[in-house]
Design a protein that fits this description.
The chain is built from five helices and eight strands, in the order αββββββββαααα. By secondary structure, the protein is an alpha+beta fold. The chain has two domains: 38-171, Immunoglobulins (Immunoglobulin-like); 173-237, no CATH class. The strands form two sheets. The chain has a five-stranded mixed sheet. Strands 1-3-6 form a three-stranded antiparallel sheet, with helices on one face. The chain is globular and about 55 Å long. The termini are far apart.
């Protein structure tokens, strides 16, 4: 059965969260997954890439990792979400990012929506790629879900030496949740999103906040809590790359 956006009334929000949302580092909620079954197109064997290579400085350090809950699809209310992954110290030739619309789940057929390549920063940290309307990309549709991947290429390799991947699905939130998100920002918005299974909304709210306030201890602790809640404690203190 197709895992579709059948959810125009999804993820009810606790009344207390809406009326008294004053997130603290201690109170920031763990991410609450909303598993709907993982599609058959996940052929990589998971979102973590343990392989080392000639252009990775320390094969024993954490390797390429998608910042993504691998037990659900990764939901968002944003038609232009931001994707994130941990990039180790490297001298890679380039990174390729791909986004596909899942056309047929049973047969593993997906259609390219967006592709870009770029030279990564050499220092380890969490990279962010923001989809943009300015690039001529149509907004993601709530009628479909999408598969995304990050491939790292070394100068002496024809094939990617590391790969990380994930999924994203756009949801139309029910009115109470939509209002709560619209009337909040920063840590408060991230907490509402995390508690309601909106992974990409949560990470984007915290990332945007930390971009302007990189030394906010409460936001840093909340970010660490968020990553630890999906098993990424080994990179929870990695810096956000500019």
């Amino acid at each position: 059965m197709k895992i579709s956006s059948l959810f125009s009334t999804l993820f009810p929000v606790a009344l207390g969260l809406l009326t008294t949302m004053a997130a603290s580092a201690e109170a920031f909620p763990s991410y609450t997954p909303q598993p709907r079954g993982i599609p058959n197109v996940r052929v990589s064997g998971g979102t973590r890439s343990p392989a080392g290579s000639s252009c990775i400085s320390d094969p024993q350090a954490p390797q390429l990792t998608s910042i993504f809950p691998d037990d659900d699809l990764g939901y968002t209310t944003d038609r232009y979400p931001a994707f994130q992954w941990y990039m180790p110290d490297n001298n890679a030739s380039y990174v390729e990012f791909n986004l596909y619309e899942v056309v047929n789940e049973e047969d593993g057929i997906y259609e390219s929506v967006y592709q870009t390549t770029f030279v990564p920063r050499s220092t380890a940290g969490i990279a962010t790629l923001q989809l943009s309307e300015a690039a001529g990309l149509a907004p993601l549709s709530p009628d479909n879900y999408y598969y995304w991947s990050v491939d790292v290429y070394c100068s002496d390799d024809l094939a990617a030496v590391m790969m990380a991947d994930g999924f994203v699905e756009v949801l139309v939130p029910e009115p109470t949740l939509a209002t709560a998100l619209a009337e909040s920002d920063g840590i408060d918005r991230a907490a509402i999103a995390a508690e309601n299974g909106l992974w990409f909304d949560a990470t984007r709210a915290l990332t945007d906040h930390l971009t302007t306030q990189p030394n906010d201890r409460q936001a840093l602790d909340s970010w660490q809590t968020l990553l630890e809640s999906i098993g990424l404690e080994n990179i929870a203190d990695a810096p956000l790359l500019p």
